[in-house]
Write a structure and sequence with these properties.
The chain is an all-beta fold and about 1500 residues long. It folds into eight domains: about 240 residues, Jelly Rolls, CATH 2.60.120; about 160 residues, GOLD domain (Jelly Rolls, Sandwich), CATH 2.60.120.680; about 180 residues, Jelly Rolls (Sandwich); about 170 residues, Jelly Rolls, CATH 2.60.120; about 160 residues, Jelly Rolls (Sandwich); about 160 residues, Jelly Rolls, CATH 2.60.120; about 160 residues, Jelly Rolls (Sandwich), CATH 2.60.120; about 160 residues, Jelly Rolls. Helix content is about 5%, strand content about 45%. It is built from seven helices and 115 strands. Strands 30, 33, 34, 35, 36, 38, 41, 42 and 44 form a nine-stranded antiparallel β-sheet that branches. Strands 45, 48, 49, 50, 51, 53, 56, 57 and 59 form a nine-stranded antiparallel β-sheet that branches. It is elongated. Keywords: Membrane, Signal, Transmembrane, Transmembrane helix.
């Protein structure tokens, strides 16, 4: 068998034919053989299969050659690829040999290696490189690979035979490939040679068993000659279990930006993979990467590296990219075909470059192989929609041959998801854009003033995209391709041109100013940068284009100006900077601006102003500032320093400023020009013909630029029409502000003339802001003769303020004290004066504000010769100006005639809740009648927040003093009963002061002469029955004794309740009582929450020694504040008696009723105020006092009428404290719908002490409880007066009064009242005892109850249902409506278990009586239902009282609400059996929609 097999092999060699063989030796290998010829015309290869023998004759072997020792790498595996492993002998098991193709085992190693190739001396043509192999004459080059491990391997063999270029093309005879396993031939493949194509052999041997270090030989046999025997041999050996190449998933990707060169690296990096294949459909990952280059084991000469790509003759080379996210991309690509150096320059046929999306071909082009230089093509695909499943393929196909098919891809993939163009950006058209634009100043967001900053393609002005990445700190657009656009610098990107585009604002003619400076080329390879090309377009039309070389020695600047272009609105003017083939050192500076040549578009002063009418030639920019045209003012921007080349600024923030998008800012006192030569103009149009005075100042603010040399200052003009009246230059000083006056007086104007303030920012507007004042006035001054006929030198500004001349006061305005005019025009609210000329100035009693160019003046005319004291203060109010340093305060000057006697500047504090004060105190100023004292309030430098208040009090230095007086009187007096409060009346004086020592007699009274006021002590008011201390001093009542003796001083002080929004803020008052400087008492008087929730203290001092002229003082002063410090002082002073009446202060009206005077009681009638008491005659038959109709008084019935009160008068039997208890019951009055109820008043010596209202129309009896304490003097008259209140229809009722000694000594036993009809209850629903019951019946009750579950009959579980006053007084039970399960008052109040509503002036009240001594917890909630159906509804408040003492108050339910409001309570208190706990809901204002729900739980905690 061996000989037979070998014979066949030998025959095949001698036959010298191209064949493909499959050789089998036992079960050693199964070999699949395929021959693929990569040509346009398939070459036929015979299918002859030759079986080689398993061995060789012994005569073939020789021992002359000794194989060098091989030291193997123990980590080596059965995976090898000759091209990648090429190197030193033995590397990864490879050896490079020469010898006979028939006996490779006897071959020898090649001895020469230069690092690139192996060769052998004497063997001409013998060469083995990594990817090239060539035979020698008669000798074959041999690749040997030794197995690393025992096992099975797969072998892939690809051989490309180069074309036959021999001059005698018939001479070359091709080669034969052999594969041996040891000395066993397992493959033989004959390869013919062609003159017009390369021959390709692709073979695979699978599942080949190998032993460790067993050799596989791969042989190229030269056949008969070695002419043109060169080719590429690729051999890959892999363990059968080896895995193929894989690509990693790049998890760092966030977008679809990619670049083939910058991203080059591992398979999968940024979505890139490197493939081979016959087409994109069967493309696969290349097998091998070495030293930064990818190759494939079956694709000879296929190479993919960062800057190089070469296809194989049998496989296309491909770059593949897969998107990271779904979206839209743009593909910009460039392929460069490198120069070819083939010996036959006609042989290289170039390549075909294609681009695919999945299987769809997007681009395809043949690229020739240039004999010199490079051949480049570009491709671009815009708006390509992709998903993460898509793949883009960039393919290079070798064509007919692969000779010199090397080139380079530069592929830039740009994520255009969300990308925009100029069409997608809405330009701000909030103001009319003009054809003035400059990228240096407008640079910023896309679309600002029509500018767009884009990345483009080549020289194209269209199809570009807006740059997305704007770096604020660097003030630039920048992307990863190094495309960079600043306001004055531009650099192209890799594969991207820089596009700067402006959208035309208006149709007309424009001028383009543009220039470009190419910076020096400083590249280390100076030949690499290729310069730039800059083009200016109008739409797609080239206006100018310039080339800029990459000069290494100098910068190159060229003008790109265009003097005139006619454009239409929405056209585009575009600058394109093209980096050409690369962007190396493409940076340069540029200028690009547009100037309009046609008139501006927009409104002017002619559109918004008019002359004549009510407008005058008085105007102040600072005060008139507002809408365009207001009082002739117009706010404009313009160009060329021409007031007529201007239009009105359109953007106005009301009461704040006018602005333009490019920097114009005009406020009432601040002006800022814009760049691009755009001036800021303030223009006034004259209303009338005549002369005017122009007051104009401009203050250049400090230069605080980080680069102080950059700002260049401003030029300020004052123009009449286009004539310059004044001009001032302002340097940009860094150390100070500079103010200059541009005022002009006596300028003659005609109606319609324009006076313009123009601020020009020159070359730049850095720190060009400034403050200004601009006032125009006519020259007319109106005056008046000033007199004071009051006859005294007493004056108070706040109290006298009113009409001109009142008490000698006049109100003026003017530039100075001697250049002023009287004010005649009232403020809108009629409370003060304002200027007829200009807005802003106000003169009021409590507010004063000057205006620019005019001070506010208060003038007072001296009434009589003498000396005066001037006291007071000027209070400068705080500010909230956004510029905290701008308000600079006011000046305060006082003049006597024209000479100043006081001069101060008052600064303006920050914060409207703050103020600064200047005290004014001028003593004993000698004056003569007719002299004028002027209080002048002026602006400092500006009038920002110049409001304040002037407080002035003028007194005769020899003021009125407290004294006895000349009128004869006694030491008996009642403060509340004096008939007037003229100082000294009945010895009474009214003063204010911080102490008795500095107290002064008050002079000013209110209009009805019932109260004294103070102009300098805020809040002070003194009446005989009302007192409120001042903020700065006490209210003082002073009585002067008329004669020597002893006196009794009795009275009380009632501190009224408070309703402050912050109930904890009012802190009460203090009362002090003195005789001369002897302090009799001093008490702090707390203030209680709630209107009518008064706090009363009594005082009584008896048998006090007194001398004529002694002073008894009652000092009422505020404590920490004087909020809600109102009250009432009641004082009675008596000459002390040594005798007594013998009666006590214990009596009962019903028991004592009878003869006049019995037990001190008298029965009669009086006026509503208790005066003019008259005794009535007794009708003994009916046991009544009667006035022939009305009034009528009985022991158990009383009815007023005929315009008179029914009055019960009782005279106190002794000096001391008394308790007055009882009640008044109003009988039913509903028989007459017009009946309106009554009012009960209690008077002591004519001084009203108590008011009890029982007004209304009643279908059932209504009860009001009486429970009062008073200090009385023997002989004092206490009157209980029932007033008919409106009409006297059905005004009958019953008054029950018990008077007892307040010390607890009750000598008068109380006789129970017996009702007239013993079969009926005397007063159904009456609360018989508002105080805790002495012996309440509890019926075994405990202190555990719940309102909802207990609700039912009156008294059930201790609960009672009724109504009361706001303070809990006068509780009366309501009747029960069983049909609705409610207690009801024929309307309101209404009480249910789950609903409660107060009304008709009464609280809805749930009362519970404590069952036993102990500690209880009261918890629950009050829910106020929504009440917004009536916008006037005011809500409610809730109180809890224990025995009349308030323990809980909540008013968060007061107001108008669209949803429920809930107040909760939780109180733990100690109680006694019989204590009364009252839950009262107050209607608080009105009773509209006052419904709610009360939940109460009471439980014992003992």
């Amino acid at each position: 068998m061996l000989k037979k097999g070998f014979s066949k092999v030998l025959q095949a060699i001698l036959a010298h034919k191209v064949k493909t063989a499959l050789i089998a030796s036992g079960a050693t290998a199964a070999i699949a053989v395929t021959a693929v010829v990569m040509t346009n015309h398939p070459m036929e290869i015979k299918d002859e299969v030759i079986a080689l023998g398993g061995g060789w004759p012994d005569s073939f072997f020789s021992d002359e050659y000794v194989e060098p020792e091989f030291v193997d790498d123990p980590s080596r595996t059965n995976n090898a690829f000759n091209v990648a492993d090429f190197g030193e002998q033995g590397n990864n098991g490879w050896f490079y040999r020469y010898g006979s193709a028939l006996d490779p085992v006897k071959s020898r190693r090649l001895e020469s290696y230069d690092g690139e190739k192996y060769f052998q001396l004497g063997k001409t043509g013998m060469e083995i490189k990594s990817n090239f192999i060539h035979t020698a004459e008669g000798t074959a080059p041999i690749l040997e690979w030794r197995a690393a491990d025992t096992g099975k391997v797969n072998v892939q063999l690809t051989y490309v035979k180069n074309a036959n270029k021999d001059k005698n093309p018939s001479y070359p005879d091709g080669v034969t490939l052999y594969v041996y396993k040891g000395d066993e031939a397992i493959g033989r493949y004959e390869v013919d040679v062609s003159t017009d194509k390369e021959e390709v052999v692709e073979e695979t041997i699978k599942d080949l068993s190998v032993e460790e270090l067993e050799s596989l030989y791969f042989i190229v046999d030269p056949n008969m000659n070695n002419a043109f025997d060169g080719g590429s041999l690729y051999v890959a050996i892999n363990d059968v279990n080896a895995k193929g190449p894989t690509a990693s998933v790049d998890t760092t990707r966030e977008n679809n930006n990619a670049n083939s060169q910058e991203d080059f690296g591992k398979q999968g990096n940024n979505g890139w993979t490197y493939l081979y294949g016959k087409s994109v459909k069967d493309a696969k990952l290349v097998s091998t990467e070495k030293d930064g280059a990818y190759m494939n084991v079956t694709s000879p000469n296929l190479t993919i590296s960062q800057y190089f790509i070469h296809p194989a003759i049998n496989d296309e080379a491909m770059l593949c990219w897969q998107p990271a996210v779904d979206g839209k991309i743009e593909v910009r690509g460039k392929y460069t075909k490198f120069e070819q150096n083939d010996g036959d320059p006609t042989w290289p046929d170039g390549v075909v470059v294609s681009v695919y999306k999945n299987g769809e071909k997007l681009f395809n082009k043949k690229v020739a192989a240039p004999a010199k230089g490079e051949n480049s093509i570009s491709f671009r695909e815009q708006d390509l929609e992709v998903t993460t499943e898509d793949k883009l393929y960039f393919v290079v196909d070798a064509g007919i041959n692969s000779s010199y098919d090397g080139g380079c891809f530069d592929i830039n993939i740009i994520d255009r998801t969300g990308a925009t163009t100029e069409a997608d950006v809405q330009i701000d058209e909030s103001e009319t854009r003009q054809n003035f634009a400059d990228v240096k100043y407008d640079f910023g967001e896309q679309g600002k003033n029509g500018w767009f900053y884009q990345d483009g393609f080549g020289d194209e002005p269209t199809g570009s995209y807006n740059m997305q990445n704007f770096e604020t700190e660097e003030d630039r657009y920048f992307d990863s391709s190094y495309l960079e656009i600043k306001r004055d610098f531009v650099n192209t990107g890799k594969g991207k041109s820089a596009v700067i585009k402006w959208k035309v604002a208006q149709t007309g003619d424009i001028k383009i100013d543009a220039a470009y400076t190419k910076f020096k080329n400083e590249d280390k390879n100076p030949s690499w940068p290729d310069g730039t090309r800059v083009t200016i377009y109008h739409n797609d039309e080239v206006l100018v284009q310039e080339e800029f070389e990459a000069d290494t020695k100098k910068e190159i600047t060229k003008s790109l100006n265009v003097e005139k272009v006619s454009v239409k609105k929405d056209d585009f003017i575009t600058m394109v900077v093209n980096g050409k083939d690369n962007n190396a050192y493409d940076g340069g500076s540029y200028e690009f601006s547009i100037k309009g040549l046609s008139p501006l578009t927009g409104k002017t002063h002619k559109d918004v102003t008019s002359t004549g009418g009510s407008r005058t030639n008085n105007a102040s920019m600072q005060e008139d500032f507002g809408k365009q045209g207001s009082n002739g003012w117009v706010f404009q921007s313009g160009y060329y320093l021409d007031p007529d080349f201007a239009v009105n600024v359109e953007t106005y923030k009301e009461n704040d400023k006018y602005t333009t998008n490019d920097g114009i800012e005009i406020k009432r006192d601040y002006i800022m020009p814009a760049n691009k030569g755009r001036s800021a103009n303030v223009k006034w149009v004259a209303a009338q013909t005549g002369p005017v005075d122009i007051s104009l100042t401009y203050t250049k603010l400090k230069n605080e630029d980080a680069n102080p040399d950059w700002p260049d200052g401003v030029t300020v003009y004052l123009k009449k029409n286009n004539e310059i009246l004044k001009k001032q230059d302002f340097a940009p000083l860094t150390d100070k502000e500079v103010t200059k006056d541009l005022s002009v007086e006596g300028v003659n104007v005609k109606a319609g003339d324009c006076l313009t303030l123009m601020v020009d920012g020159k070359e730049n507007t850095a720190y060009d802001g400034g403050n200004f004042t601009f006032v125009i006035e006519d020259a007319d001054l109106k005056t008046v003769d000033m007199v004071n006929n009051s006859g005294s030198n007493y004056a108070n500004l706040a109290l006298d303020f009113g009409e001109q001349g009142n008490n000698g006061w006049y109100y003026w305005e003017g530039k100075s004290v001697d250049k002023a005019e009287v004010l005649h025009q009232k403020t809108e609210d009629g409370t003060g004066y304002t200027s007829r000329k200009l807005k802003g100035l106000e003169v009021k009693k409590d507010f004063v504000q000057p205006r620019l160019n005019a001070h506010a003046m208060y003038k007072w005319v001296v009434a009589v010769d003498g000396e005066i004291d001037i006291t007071g203060a000027y209070v400068k109010f705080g500010h909230e100006d956004p510029n905290a340093t701008w308000p600079d305060g006011t000046t305060v000057t006082i003049y006597r005639n024209g000479k100043d006697i006081f001069d101060e500047t008052c600064s303006c504090p920050r914060g409207e809740d703050r103020s600064n004060k200047i005290d004014i105190n001028i003593s004993k100023l000698s004056v003569k009648a007719g002299e004028v004292i002027t209080f002048d309030i002026g602006c400092n430098k500006n009038n920002a927040w110049d409001g304040g208040r002037l407080e002035i009090d003028i007194e005769d230095a020899n003021a009125t003093k407290v004294g006895v007086g000349n009128k004869e009187r006694t030491n008996n007096t009642v403060l509340g009963a004096i008939d007037s409060i003229e100082q000294g009346t009945d010895g009474w004086w009214f003063l204010d002061g911080t102490s008795l020592k500095d107290a002064k007699v008050l002079h000013y009274m209110n209009d009805d002469k019932t109260a004294y006021l103070s102009g300098k002590n805020e809040g002070l008011e003194i009446k005989k029955d009302y007192v409120h201390p001042g903020k700065n001093g006490a209210a003082i009542y002073q009585w002067v004794a008329y004669s020597d003796g002893k006196i009794d001083i009795l009275g009380d002080y009632v501190k009224f309740g408070q309703n402050d929004s912050n109930p904890s803020y009012p802190d009460g008052t203090k009362i002090q009582i003195y005789i001369n400087d002897k302090l009799l008492t001093e008490q702090d008087v707390a203030v209680f929450a709630g209107d009518g929730n008064d706090n009363k203290i009594d005082f009584m001092f008896t048998k006090q020694d007194i001398h004529r002229g002694d002073k008894v003082s009652f000092v009422i002063s505020a404590k920490g504040n004087n909020a809600y410090d109102a009250g009432k002082l009641s004082v009675s002073i008596y000459e002390a008696n040594s005798e007594s009446t013998g009666r006590t202060n214990n009596t009962n009206l019903k028991n004592a009723f009878g003869e006049q005077g019995s037990d001190g009681w008298y029965y009669g009638m009086c006026d509503w105020d208790g005066k003019n008491f008259e005794l009535l005659e007794m009708d003994t038959e009916n046991n009544r006092y009667y006035n022939n109709g009305k009034p009528e008084l009985k022991a158990d019935f009383v009815e007023p009428g005929n315009g008179k009160n029914a009055a019960y008068k009782w005279v106190a039997g002794e000096t001391g404290k008394i308790k007055v208890t009882g009640k008044y019951t109003k009988f039913v009055s509903s028989n007459d719908p017009a009946a309106d109820g009554v009012v009960i008043r209690i008077f002591i010596n004519g001084d009203e002490k108590k008011f009890i209202g029982v007004q209304g129309n009643f279908s059932s009896e209504v009860t009001r409880d009486i429970n009062e304490e008073y200090v009385v003097h023997e002989g004092d008259e206490i009157v209980f007066a029932v007033n008919p209140e409106g009409n006297d229809s059905y005004d009958g009722g019953r008054l029950e009064i018990k008077i007892s000694d307040g010390t607890g000594n009750d000598d008068e036993p109380e006789t129970p009242d017996t009702p007239d009809n013993p079969d009926e209850p005397e007063n159904p629903g009456e609360n018989t005892d508002p105080e805790p019951s002495d012996e309440p019946e509890t019926d075994g009750r405990t202190n555990n109850t719940n309102l909802a579950s207990a609700f039912g009959e009156q008294g059930s579980d201790g609960w009672y249902y009724g109504m009361c006053d706001w303070d809990g007084a006068n509780f009366s039970e309501l009747g029960y409506d069983s049909g609705a399960n409610r207690y009801f008052n024929d309307g309101k109040p209404e009480l249910k278990s789950d609903f409660v509503e107060p009304g008709n002036g009464r609280n809805a009240a749930y009362k519970w009586v404590v069952a036993e001594d102990g500690t209880i917890n009261i918890s629950g909630s009050y829910v106020k239902f929504a009440n917004n159906e009536d916008e006037n509804a005011t809500g409610t408040c809730m109180r809890i009282r224990v025995n009349g003492q308030e323990i809980y108050f909540e008013n968060q339910t007061a107001g108008n609400f669209d949803s429920e409001r809930e107040a909760t309570f939780d109180k733990t208190i100690d109680v006694k059996k019989g204590d009364v706990i009252l839950f009262a809901i107050d209607p608080e204002g009105n009773d509209a929609w006052d419904g709610g729900r009360l939940v109460v739980n009471i439980k014992s905690v003992d």
